[in-house]
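Box 3.1 A note on notation
Throughout this textbook, protein chains are presented in two layers. The first layer is the amino acid sequence; the second is a token string describing backbone geometry. Keep the layers aligned when reading.
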Amino acid sequence: MPLTRVTIRQFEAFLAIVDLHSIGAAAARLGLTASAVSQLLAELETELGFRLFDRTTRRVALSSAGQDFLASAESVLRHVQAAAQSADDIRNRAAGIVRVGAPLVIAATALPAAIADYARNKPKVVVRICD
């Protein structure tokens, strides 16, 4: 079954409800209304074809299907967050390789300290010296 209509926001809502055991508290965390979070949850359940929670007027508890789905949802959100971090690093030039061309004397004397300072600020950047 293709899940082309599933959104990241639906996964966020689902995991917030799981974490906080409350639609209202999840709504507050996400900066949404409780009805908006309920709608996101209903849309996700419709796309998946099963109920994620057993609900009463006073509580929400993961259904057995929701429990089975939880690890996959957490994995999806972790991958999305990693992709967002990677994009942020690329946008800010905080990751990758920097090649510095320098004569041997400069490469041996001045650059090691400069590279060490730079590495403290940008730990995901690899600096390579080309003499």
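The chain has two domains: 8-90, 93-130. Residues 8-90 form a domain with the Arc Repressor Mutant, subunit A fold (CATH 1.10.10.10).
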